[in-house]
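Work package 3, deliverable 3.1, input record:
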Amino acid sequence: MENNIIIDLRNITVAYGDNTVLKNLNLSIHDREFITLLGPSGCGKTTTLRIIGGFIEPDEGEIFFEGKKTNGVPPHKRQVNTIFQRYALFPHLNVYENVAFGLRLRHLPEKEIKETVREMLELVNLKGFERRHISSLSGGQQQRVAIARALAVKPRVLLLDEPLGALDLKLRKDMQIELKNIQQRLGITFIYVTHDQEEALSMSDTIVVMDNGLIQQIGSPQDIYNEPSNAFVADFIGESNIVDGVMLRDYCCRFSGQTFECLDTGFAENEQVDVVVRPEDVDVVPVEKGMLRGEVTSVTFKGVHFEIIVDIGGFKWMIQSTDYQAVGDKIGLYIEPDAIHIMKKSEYSGMFGDYSSFSEEYEELSIAEEPEEEDEEQEEDL
Amino acid sequence: MKGLSRVYTALVFIFLYAPIAVLLLYSFNSSTSTIVFHGFSLHWYKTLFADRATLRALYNTLLLAVCSSVIATVLGTAASVGIEKFRKSALRTSIMATTNIPMMNPEIVTGVSMMLLFVFIGRALSIDSVLGFGTLLIAHVTFNLPYVILTVLPKLRQTDKNLAEAAMDLGCRPVSAFFKVVFPAITPGIITGMIMAFTLSLDDFIISYFTSGPGFQTLPIAIFSMTKKRVKPDMYALSALIFVSILILLILYNIAQQKSEEKSNKKI
């Protein structure tokens, strides 16, 4: 990654009445980077995007675009373009005219417009759709038109606000790959907003995890997954067991009544910490060989593996294993030193990582509600 | 049961359209009788087009209807855009309530109160005859406005909130973004509102009665003043003409709507 910063947000604060949406946010975005703002609804990610697009002015703080301050510059004068959540295609124009919209505003010669539109429709695999009406397109095709329309004006930065949220799973996977390809081919910066952690992990160069108007962690997908900075990040990205622990000394910690070897250093002696263990990093062993012992309370078949909930001294652990265990079985758990990740205590400690209230249905419900809430966030913005 | 429902339907249509049929028929009657049809003649149509006062009133009515509906449409559309921007529901509700007052209010109250206001201002500015085209226009715009807002607002709500933003994002100035992308999306609502305002203005009697002066009479007022003597069959001719023109207008509008629907259906 080159070290030239294209967009710099400094000390950005946005509040609607008493509701502070962004709190003193600092973020530097590099040129040609695929950066994802990831977080639950209401975390401020869409607001951040709209500040970069120029649709919201921050109450405090500065925005720099290539070193030039862009506070107060209206959207039509910014070198960034947005893909909106519901595409916002112009329904009275056909595909060709939608893509040509930005070019016509620049008073380019008709020949050049024609050439660019053709090029863009080819880029998004919509050749031959020029005369089609917007309402006759499927969701995926509309998405492609929106991408072509935004890219036609050759932005330096493309902002994408949950662009794949309305598509079904299969199409979403295909579009993820396609978007990443487009970004790499054109070599422009993508700023991508999503609440889907899997999407963020598979597409991004850099992930910015946000909650409650604050950046929780910035890092590569691997960093974010393997070295979460606090309980919120650990829980939001993938599944994790988060237990209270004590760092006895470097490379040695104690939790769930046992002492473990680990790879973490730099904590004070006997410092209270949060310990993260990913479900796939735990090995199931016969009970007498286990570092921890517990009783299986539920087993769910997931296709690739079984999701096993184990009660260890009252704390419910989630374990992913390809071997079936029956409910009620006593099993032992074996944890490698590199499977243990130690985090400093934070305001999120104790809020996440226990699967005692775990329920599949509940999880799905909360995901289904999310787009609605996002709507409200947007409306507030207007 | 089926027979009964047919009879019922037939009755409904008879009550709705029989009076108009009779009117059309008697506008071609050769005598003044309203009871006996003496023979087919265009006599009353000739009389009508020779009657300068009535034609003048017709012209006034059309002028007023066109002006007031156009002004109400422009103001109403602008107001709808503004109201749609309000997110705070309490403020929005109170604005809508205020907007709807001219529609809910009995016409007589609106009429009398407007007359009072106009006369008061006329006195204050020491204008002798303040009532006339100007006051009628203000009154008609006032009662047309809520109907325009009520047809434009739902259309506006249906359109994607991000449309204007998307246009600006691509390099449009805010005002031209509205005209380039939002306006086309709400045009059907605007046209419906305008037609509604036009027809409401065309046949308004009560409010016009209070806010017009001797110098400017509209058709409904002219006809009403005739009823004090006797309505001659040339008024049947006039009513017949108005009815037929509005019928044609409605049919054309429906055809246009059908066509645009077919167009968008075909594309799907």
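The domain at 241-367 of chain A is CATH 2.40.50.140 (OB fold (Dihydrolipoamide Acetyltransferase, E2P)).
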